[in-house]
Amino acid sequence: MTDAQDTAADSSLRTTGGAPPDDGGSSVTGAPDGTTQPEPTPLLAPREGVPPVIADEESLARVIAAFAAGSGPVAVDAERASGYRYGQRAYLVQLRREGAGTALIDPVACPDLSGLGEALSGTEWVLHAATQDLPCLREIGMVPTRLFDTELAGRLAGFPRVGLGAMVESVLGFVLEKGHSAVDWSTRPLPEPWLRYAALDVELLVDLRDALEKDLDRQGKLEWARQEFDAIAAAPPAEPRKDPWRRTSGMHKVRRRRQLGVVRELWETRDRIAQRRDVSPGKVLSDAAIVEAALALPANVHALAALNGFGHRTGRRQLEQWQAAVDRARLLSESQLPQPGMPLTGPPPPRAWADKDPAAAARLSAARAGVSALAERLNMPQENLITPDTVRRVCWEPPKDVDAETVGAALAGYGARPWQVEQVTPVLVAALSAQA
After folding, report:
1. Is the dihedral of CA 304, 309, 312, 316 positive or negative?
2. pTM
3. Do the Cβ atoms of 269 and 290 come closer than 8 Å?
4. Is the pLDDT of residue 17 over 90?
């Protein structure tokens, strides 16, 4: 039994909330260390019941006061309407803190939660997969200064499955319902089963955090995790993606510049419509239909209507707007057409290294093997030990004089945290020196 599971075994959670007390049922395997653990218990309801949704300023003020007076870390989660609405805004925010209980807040009715964010300033926020929720939380004024990411902690601790449900089950011995994870959270009013699901997502988050902290400490990785969490909290908002239309699914089929122009025109037209209607772009026009039109270059609405994705259910007016986008691409001059491929800001794709620079290819091969072996010894994914992009950049343009100081400085320059520099530098020095 790991320290995380040991902590869970001692927890009073086994006799609280909607779940029955642990009666010492049958054992199952599945712990990260291969040991057996009790049969997981379904967690059916929050221990204090499902709280009412906060949807007015007066109720929000009471929640802010309660959470400011609470103690310890605060569990935070947010629900979005991906696949239904345009963008990634939050449609429900869930919080739980000792002394304050659980709160469910409607950020549509209460779009400014900066007061809550300020009340929790300096408090450690516990999130699962923090980088997914932080952008939408930032939009409504909630920005943590300290955080603990239970998904990332699970990766560093070597758990094979790091989804929230899998972590809660393997560490705390409870089964969370996950049937409402992909519903349309913009629905109003939100159904009670959805609210119960949302409240349960933060019910055990602090308990999971405590167990994982103990496990990381036992493995000597707690300081590593803290550096990772600090880096997430300090990271600025992501820059807007350059040429987002290039991420259209199926783009590998599109070769000619005129066809690329059609993809761009259709994508941008779709995006404007989706934003205006506040619906997911995929509900306006599928990526597959965009690529189909780009490859076919239809000359008129009749030809367009014959393509997959533009069938009989597409109205004449809609067909005309899509054909207009195709026609705009047809009329672009050569200089206005997009260039194939994304502009390179770093090394070329590794598959091209053997031809462009065989010595660099040999360095990369040795470095990858060394990093893989180190990640296996440390029991964590390679991408959490060091990003593949960082390894490629150091191998493509290594320091003139290869030693621990120069390689460590190069890693730090690419954003590696101190613990990563300490662990990976010897591996890269060996790989770069062997191929010098």
Report:
1. negative
2. 0.88
3. no
4. no
